[in-house]
Specification:
The protein is built from 7 helices and 4 strands; from the N terminus they run βααβααβααβα. By secondary structure, the chain is an alpha+beta fold. The protein starts with 7 loop residues before the first strand and ends in an 8-residue tail after the last helix.
Length: about 140
């Protein structure tokens, strides 16, 4: 018998305004739960422009920045912290490439995204970004240990 040990890690995931308005929240969350992830924090809120600019600060100055900020502040989002084996990498595989038109069927974006901006979901692409995004969106008191 072989045993493989993985390090539990946490990642940040956010269902964007298009996913919320289309009623995909339950479906998306259930995919992560069926994969074995534990939800350590979950909340629905609407970004202010200032908070959205802080969240997407790495894109400031890029041609799509204003459109991105306008989109992410257009309606409520559902943010969550997921915990599981290799969470960052596994979640990124599950959601698929940024451009939903090119994402493979079976991925969240492949099944639901309409284009590059309206791509239903965001997930941190590294442990460092997950930690940063978690700190921007959640207070420590909102996170289960």
């Amino acid at each position: 018998m072989y045993w493989v040990y993985y390090l539990k890690e946490r990642t940040f995931v956010m269902i964007k305004p298009d996913g919320v308005s289309r009623g995909l929240v339950g479906e998306i969350i259930s995919r992560f739960e069926h994969k074995g992830f534990k939800i350590k924090a979950l909340k629905m809120f609407k970004f202010t422009r200032e908070k959205a600019e802080e969240f997407y600060a790495e894109h400031k100055g890029k041609h799509f920045f204003d459109k991105l900020i306008e989109f992410i502040t257009s309606g409520p989002v559902v943010a969550m912290i997921l915990e599981g084996d290799n969470a960052v990498e596994t979640v990124r595989i599950m959601i698929g490439p940024t451009d939903g038109r090119r994402a493979p069927p079976g991925t969240i974006r492949g099944d639901y995204a309409l284009d590059v901006t309206a791509n239903v979901i965001h997930a941190a692409d590294s442990k460092e970004k997950a930690e940063r995004e978690i700190k921007i969106v959640f207070d420590k008191s909102e996170i289960l240990e």
